[in-house]
């Protein structure tokens, strides 16, 4: 073999060793990817609609299907925080929802559009009033809570401002 070929093999090998593994990266995920193909979530309606129709102000489709292929995946997803647990300085558990006001001002979306996030490190309260990016490992797990039935649970590695 030529010296040139050996140098090329060495250079490519060195690049492969120093390149980050794709499996270690968080994959940016959109909310529609948490919904199985063919399932259509119910429409998002205003608080005024629910004030006029209080009998419809419950979480819809509690048996909504999940995307099983997401189980155990490393994802990065944007959303809004519905605070559940924490202390005087930070939130350590929250619901991540796709739009502002879900679970608080209007009924919760279906379970396949809510992620229960555990973040033991905690995120400062003031950082939870705007949209955030959450990175972590997601699991398909039904959790029935006081606020909503949830279809996914995520252990967060980071929670950062969206802006």
TrEMBL record:
UniProt cross-references to Pfam families, sorted A to Z: DUF3299 (PF11736)
InterPro entries reported for this sequence: DUF3299 (IPR021727)
Signal peptide: 1-23
Organism: Pseudidiomarina donghaiensis
Keyword Signal: yes
Name this protein carries in UniProt: DUF3299 domain-containing protein
Gene3D superfamilies: Protein of unknown function (DUF3299)
Alphabetically ordered keywords of this record: Signal
């Amino acid at each position: 073999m030529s010296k040139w070929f050996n140098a090329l093999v060495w250079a490519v090998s060195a690049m492969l060793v120093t390149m980050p593994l794709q499996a270690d990266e968080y994959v940016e995920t959109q909310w529609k990817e948490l919904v199985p193909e063919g399932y259509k979530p119910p429409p998002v309606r205003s608080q005024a609609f629910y004030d006029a129709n209080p009998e419809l102000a419950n979480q819809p489709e509690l048996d909504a299907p999940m995307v099983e292929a997401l189980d155990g995946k490393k994802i990065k997803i944007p959303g809004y925080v519905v605070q559940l647990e924490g202390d005087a300085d930070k939130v350590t558990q929250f619901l991540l929802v796709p739009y502002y006001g879900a679970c608080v001002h209007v009924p919760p979306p279906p379970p396949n559009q809510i992620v229960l996030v555990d973040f033991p490190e905690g995120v400062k309260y003031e950082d939870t009033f705007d949209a955030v990016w959450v990175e972590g490992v997601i699991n398909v797990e039904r959790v029935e809570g006081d606020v909503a039935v949830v279809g996914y649970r995520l252990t967060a590695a980071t929670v950062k401002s969206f802006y």
